[in-house]
Amino acid sequence: MPKGGSVTLPPGTYGDAQVKDGGTLTLAGGTYTFCDFNMGTNASLFDVDATVVQVAESFNTNGGTVGPSANAQFFVRGDGANDNRAVGFGREGTIAGTFWAPNSQINLGHGTDLTGHFWALRLQSDFNIQVHGVKKPCIDP
Question: What is the mean pLDDT of residues 68-72?
Answer without folding.
Answer: 95
